[in-house]
Each structure stands twice: as C-alpha cells, then as structure tokens.
Design a protein that fits this description.
2 copies of one chain form a homodimer. Chain A has about 425 residues and is of the alpha/beta class. Helix content of chain A is about 45%, strand content about 20%. Chain A is globular. At the A-B interface, helix 1, helix 10, helix 14, strand 13 and strand 16 of A face helix 1, helix 10, helix 14, strand 13 and strand 16 of B.
C-alpha cells in the first residue's frame, strides 16, 4: 500500500490538484471521438486485465476479512469476472451516450444584432469521495471523462488495491487515446486527512460528489468549502389513491419495496386512502409478509390486519434500506401530499391512481426530485432514465436534482458574437 | 429603527425562515398571472408612494451623512423620484418576462413506455444579503417572486429605512394579489449576527445570493453552510487580434473601459497583438488619456507611448473598477488566451478580430462565463442579454454562470408518467 508521510500529504494533494486542473484544460477541448476512444480502449483492457484486477481484489478481500467485515460489506467489495465485465460494459455504454460538451442549450438574437449562444462546457475538476465499492472508480472516472472533466477519486481504504488496479486500466485507456493520465487520478493514500484537504481545495476542485453512508455525506456537507452534489436520504413513498387500480397498487408497491430494499429508490412508506384500505390492503399485505417484509402501521392499519406492528413517529422519517415498510391511512389526496412534503426526503414519490386529475395534482404539488404516476419508485436511476450511467442521485435543488449523468456534470458559457457593437450610455 | 434583543434574534430568524418556507409552498403553485398581478400592483403603488419612500430615504441619508459617508456611497444610497420610478418600471419589466415555472425543459419516452418530463420548479427560499443600494430590495424581491421563490432580504444598515419603505410597497402588492406577505421579508434588524444566522439556515434557505464588496462575498463563501450563488471579481479583458479592424478595436476598447468604470463588465486589461500594436495603439491611447484614463503597460507598450506608466505583476490581477487600464503585448492568439485563463476571473472577455477562425478559437478556449467577439464587455448584463433583470452575475460554475435572471433562480423536477410499470430484477 502506498504510504505517504503526513507532512508530505499536503504537497501530494496540491500536486494532484494542479495536475487535475491542467488535465481539465486539455479535456475541455478534447473532441468527443477522443474521449470515447479512451473509454473503449479502457473497456478492452478491462477484459484483458481480469486476472490482475481479481488478484488486487483478493488482497483487499483478505484484509477486509481479517478486519472482520460482514457479509454485505464484503459483497460490495468483492469482484469476479462478471463484475469486471460489467465495468467494461459500463465504459462502452458511456462511450455510446451523446457527448454533452459543446451542445447548444439556447441561442437568440438581441435587437442590437448581438447573437448570444449558451453552450455546455465541462464543470472542470470533480472530486469523488466514496466508500468500499471498487466499481465506482470505473463508473465515476468514466462519467467525468465523458463530460470533459478531470476526476480526483478518493476510494475507501477497503478497496485500495482494487481501485488502483482499475485506475491502471483507465489510465492506459487515456494514454492510448492521447489524453493525459491526470484526467483520472486516485488519491494515493488511505489517510483520512486527504478527505479534509479535498474539501478545502476550492482552487483546484470545482465540485465534490460524496458517495457513501450518511456520516460521510454529512461530514462533507458540513466541512466542504467546495460546492457539493450530494445524495442524502431516499425516503420514498407510494400513495395508493382512492381511484387506484387494485392490481397495479399491489404490484407496484411490492416492486417499489422489495425488488431491492437497499437502494435509495426503494419505498419506505406506503400511504393508502382510507376509503379503499379494506379492499386493497389485504392482498398487498399478504404479498409483503410472504416475502419477509416487516410492516409497521398506524392504528387504523393495525385494526385492518393484526400482522402489522405498531409504527411510532420515527417510522415516518426513517429510511430503512431493509425489508421494512411503514403504512399510513389518509382521508384525502391533500393529506397524502402534506405527509410526503413534510416527512419525505424530496427524492422519489409515486401515486397509484386511475384519476388523471389527482395524478396531475400529485405530480405538481409533491416537491420531490422525481414524482411518478403508476410506476415503481425503483425506476429512480440514471440508467432507467436513459442517461446511460449516473454518478449518484442528487437530493439538493441547485445545479442537479435527481440522477446525475454526464449532462449534469457540465456547466455552460455564453458566446456573444457581434460586429462592433458598443453599449450605449 | 426596529431593535431586536440579541437573545431574541435567533427566534426571530427562525420564525422568518419558517414563514418563508410556508410562503414558498404557496408561491410554487401560484399561477403566473397572480405573481404578475402582485408585481404590477407593486409598480402602481411605487408611483403613489414616492413621497413616503423619499421621506424614509431622507432619514437614511441624514444618518449616513452624519456618519461621514463619501460621495459615491451617498449616491448609491440616494433615492429621488426618478429612481423610485425606475423601481416601478423594473417590476413592470419583470412582470412582462415569460414565467419560467412549469416550463418543460425536456421530455422523452423510455422503451418500457415510461414518459419522463423535466420541468422547471422554483428553487424555494432565497436569501439575499446586500449592501447599501436600496433598489436591490425591489429588484431582488421581484425577481425571486417571478421565479416562484420566497425571498429573505438582509439590507445594509445604511438603507434600513428606505428598504423597509420599499418592502411595504412590495408586500401591499402581494396582498392585493392574494399572495402571502412572507413571500418577501426583510430581516428587521441591522445586527450583523443576523447574517451569520442566515448562512447556517440550511433547513429554511435553499440558496444565498450575496451582493456587495469583496469582503462580504468572501465572508459568505467562507461561512455559508447554504449553497451560494456569488459574483466575485470581474477582471475582464479586451484582446485586439492581429486581424482586428482598427476602428472597432478603438471604439470597443474605449466603451469597454470608460462607459462605466465601476461595473463588473468594465475591461481592466487590454491585450494587443504585437504585430499591430504600433498602428492600433496610438489612437486608442489618445482616446483613453483624453478621457482621463490612467494607462499601465508592459515595457513594450511603454516603449510605444511614453504616456503609459509601468505595470507591475499585480496589475494583471487587479480589478480597478476605476479609470485605469493595464495593457500588454502578446505574440499570438495562444498567448492571449493563456494570459486570460491564467490572470482573468472567468467573467467576460472579448476578442476584436475580422478573422473568424481566430474568433471561434477564442470563444472556445477562453474559459469564461461570457466570451465575446467584436463586442464591448459592458454588454455583460442580464438586461442586455434579454433576461429582463438580473440578481447578479455569477462567477461560479455550478447551477448558474453569468447573469442570474428568473430562469437561473429555478430548479427542476422529473415527472414520470406510467401505466403500471414495475422495474425488472
């Protein structure tokens, strides 16, 4: 493992920042074909380098096992031939997406003849701080590259060897395409002080994207002097309106909760209109309980089904990320919208109804990044949105909201074309 | 002057935040006509309330004179019938702009039939911290309202009475249109601790916009836990390329520097291709010196004209905001671009040339919010861009860059319309 003396760490980080800034200058002007060449070269190298990547991963796995990591954490860290191939396919999918850089967002003429165009440009240098999953190294590095940004990656200590092996692949791809290695860099130490330094490198990092647990995100949001694109909670709701189709309500709720319970788009609270609770809930509850889901309801829900345990106030604000669902009855669409806006995390919420007026009110009035009608909240995903890949899902309102794909990793500039115009007094 | 006990200030600020959040909920759903009604009612009331506004302003002016404020600062603070009418016209111009809220930015269908629309929504609550100009109260309040945002305004202590009189007008307009007064609030104290509290009210303020001198902006950027849209420096360049039309170069440079020297779009450095310096500089220098502009050049410029004083290294990084211009010769377009990207503030830079290839390279390679060809940098202005009004010019790269008008004060959300889709495993 690369070790860096604490006293030298600031020097190392400063150099990484300067190299990234310089690389960002080249990347901003690199044509789409050249960036895609680097991505496709990387994909090909991934397929040739499976053995060396798995060898590096074995070191991480051995160290993690020794430190007593649990099953789920080990599973996140583990790579196999399929997962390496998935990284290769990820690079190919990103290469296949349209290049956002240089595209014209708007263009208009002023009465004085000035021609004003607003075009997409890269953000610059993006710092990504993440925890154990080694594939983030490939996904995040590739997505930043696609949008013409230099990336400074800071992986979790558990995936240190795996991430370095993946970085080697990406950098070889960059070299083959004639792009600077510093386009994608990895902080060469597991010293946590490096994270604090990244958060204050406002001159050389334009935006920080933290990916990990709540404590990481909160630390970053508290300490960062660099703007942050963060995903905090995904406390998603399914609301079954009184005009809901019962079988859609049953299927969508089951999928929204149980397809995968650990992702941010998983539903955590089910809200049901009181007038149809007695008819829609039994089948729905059967499905969930059969699948091993724990249900926690308000008194009215418990009265309908004794298998439902009592919910407390904290249940309405808890992102379980597990096979647990809180259930609440309401008297109206308004009450459902109020509950979601008050207790939700403004991430993804869905209404099940055949009443289009109710659906449009829900879509307009629920203040979340993604608001759905008759669809599972588990579609909250950059790939499912057609973005090819995402670096995360932003729960902030500034710059990016919802899935953050290549387009969301760009800024813009104005080109003003004149023929000698001066501004009158 | 309203006084608030220090111990009560946190309570007051918390209440302001909660009221703003509630008002933002109403504003987000208010139709364009209702917001415009409030703006037009405000404009009409401004015209009826001139006397009371000038009376309040007289109190501020008397206090400022007593504290020994200088001419330029007094001028910023002073209101007269014309300036009050300008605020009324500002509200009318903002009412006249298209409403950004609810407009569809993009819409597409997924292969599984999901219909995804991205539509503009308000940002929420915007905190504006500004210095002496009282008209910011009207401009910023109105622009936030147009974009469906609640505004928490914190005026400079000098304009406290004027700003409150202006707030009364805006709030009467809100009431006449049936909108909550809390849509536009003014912090009711000059206690500077209120600024610090605003910067940490991340639950109730979504974005902070500081408007003022460098020390204010730097304090906000250092302390804020709320995202900031800030305008730092406007170190703008005019580059006279070797293929420049001499008379355009002369007129544009003069306008870019001298039309108004105190605005952020004023040019601070002139870069001239060495091969045409001897032919283009003399007339240009004559104009500027006749108009009272001090010129500071590198050795080569001084050799051409003895009236030019010596520039030091700090001149290339100084935003004079005054009748001073630094001048430098370069050997190539590349050298000009390098100088601008290294020393500039990424605000607004212009190339003067009849060579379209050189112009397009400059537009592509200069990394500034606004890059111009054959036009004066003083066009860097929301009104001149056709945005109707601006709350400032952002020098950041995230969310907004360049003039910040109503559209830049919005976020977006995704509406996903399905017919029962669930996500496959």
């Amino acid at each position: 493992m690369a070790t860096v003396l604490q006293s030298d760490l600031q020097t190392v980080m400063t150099r990484i920042g300067q190299d990234a800034r310089a690389a960002a200058g080249s990347l901003a002007l690199a044509p789409a074909a050249q960036k895609n060449e680097a991505l496709l070269a990387g994909a090909a190298i991934f397929r040739r380098a499976v053995d060396s990547i798995l060898e590096a991963n074995a070191k991480d796995m051995a160290a993690a096992t020794q430190r007593g990591l649990t099953g789920a954490m080990l599973d996140r860290l583990a790579l196999d031939a399929n997962r390496v191939d998935a990284m290769a396919r990820g690079l190919e999918a990103i290469a296949d997406q349209p290049d956002p850089v240089g595209s014209e967002i708007a263009r208009w003429q002023r009465p004085n003849g000035l021609d004003i165009a607003r075009i997409r440009v890269p953000l610059g240098v993006i710092g990504i701080i993440y925890e154990s999953r080694p594939n983030v190294t490939a996904d995040a590095g590739a997505l930043c590259l696609k949008a013409g940004n230099a990336a400074i990656l800071r992986c979790g200590s558990e995936s240190f060897h795996s991430s370095h092996a993946i970085l080697d692949v990406l950098q070889t791809g960059l070299s083959e395409a004639g792009l600077p290695n510093a386009a994608i860099q990895l902080v060469p130490t597991i010293d946590r002080a490096a994270v604090g330094m990244m958060l204050t490198m406002a001159d050389s990092i334009d935006v920080i994207v933290p990916r990990g647990g709540r404590s990481l995100i909160e630390r970053v949001q508290q300490e960062s002097r660099v703007p942050v694109l963060a995903h905090l909670d995904g406390l998603c709701h399914v609301y079954v309106d009184k005009a809901a189709d019962h079988s859609k309500a049953r299927e969508i709720t089951f999928n929204a909760k149980m397809r995968r319970t650990g992702i941010c788009g998983a539903a955590e609270t089910l809200i049901v209109d009181r007038s149809i609770a007695a008819s829609v809930l039994p089948g729905l509850v059967d499905d969930l309980i059969e699948a091993g889901c724990e249900l926690r309801g308000d008194e009215d829900v418990q009265a309908l089904d004794s298998r439902v345990m009592a919910a407390t106030d904290t249940d309405w604000t808890t992102e379980y990320l597990d096979a647990i669902l809180s259930i609440k009855l309401v008297d109206s669409l308004d009450a459902a919208i109020d509950h979601i806006n008050m207790y939700g995390s403004h991430h993804t919420d869905s209404i099940i109804t055949d009443d289009d007026v109710a659906a449009e009110r829900f879509l307009a009035e629920v203040d979340s990044a993604i608001v759905m009608h008759n669809a599972s909240t588990q579609f909250a995903d950059g790939g499912e949105f057609g973005m090819g890949a995402e670096i995360g899902i932003s729960t902030g309102r500034l710059h990016a909201r919802g899935p953050v794909g290549a387009e969301q990793l760009t800024s813009f500039k104005y080109l003003v074309r004149g023929r000698g115009q001066i501004r009158p007094a």
